[in-house]
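<instruction>
Derive structure tokens from the sequence
<entry> Chain with its tokenised backbone below:
===
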Amino acid sequence: MPYSPFRQFSVQQWAKLKDNTSVPLTENELQALRGINERASIMEVENVYLPLSRLLSYYVASVQSLNQQTSAFLHDNTPKVPFIIGVAGSVAVGKSTSSRILQTLLARWPGHPRVDLINTDGFLLPTAELEKRNLMHRKGFPESYDRPALLAFLSDIKSGRSKVSAPVYSHLRYDIVPGEFNTVDQPDVLIVEGLNVLQPNLAVPGVFVSDFFDFSVYVDADEADIRQWYISRFLTFRHSVFKQPGAYFSHYAGLTEEEATATASDIWDTINRVNLHENIHPTRERADLILHKDSNHAIDGVLLRKL
């Protein structure tokens, strides 16, 4: 990569950047942060996420200082502006686990103890609206989101507004939960996690979701591995989530393993793979940092954008 905008690190090289900082996370805490079929280990937290959280703590402090200086220069009393981190990547690649680990670690660094996490699933259009627009087969694609609402939410956050609400999404119901909201109230850091937060077409004219990010992370892996992880997760859901009362996908609970594998493969090939190729993977190079995983779901490389 002679002309790459990224610096490339092996995990061993990246791990040296933790600078003797100890891991402020126990195995029990990490277990609660892992997603289904995820294998993030304490060693990976120590070697990958701890140096990343250390770097991000420097970025946060720098931006906070710049905001204060800018406010003084303009002679105004601008409210505290949260540092926003975007986390993107495919379905089943482990974005949520990465986001939760970063949230936990960042909150334990001095200077920014309040770290909130929002998933953009809450800004998907309700199922009834998707059905009305014949978009259920495109759920997760840019056109399935309430883009103006997502952009308004981020604009309010970046303007320093207090008590900004985001809709709640239920993966069990596969729909927005009417009348329920998550409230973001001027945190020091906000992590915004979603399939397509780096996509230029997740926008209104002239304004992009990524315009509001101070830093962005793309969780990456080979497509064949992600496909296998998706199928494995689907098979696990067949014995758990799909059996819960009110589950949208309850009709999948009774499938045999062969039938479930075929169904998951078809969903991947006709929906998730298409979204990955058309919308998600093309945004990889727009990230400030890329975490690449091997076939065992372990991070095996880090790419950091050059300043």
Notes: The chain has eight helices and eleven strands.
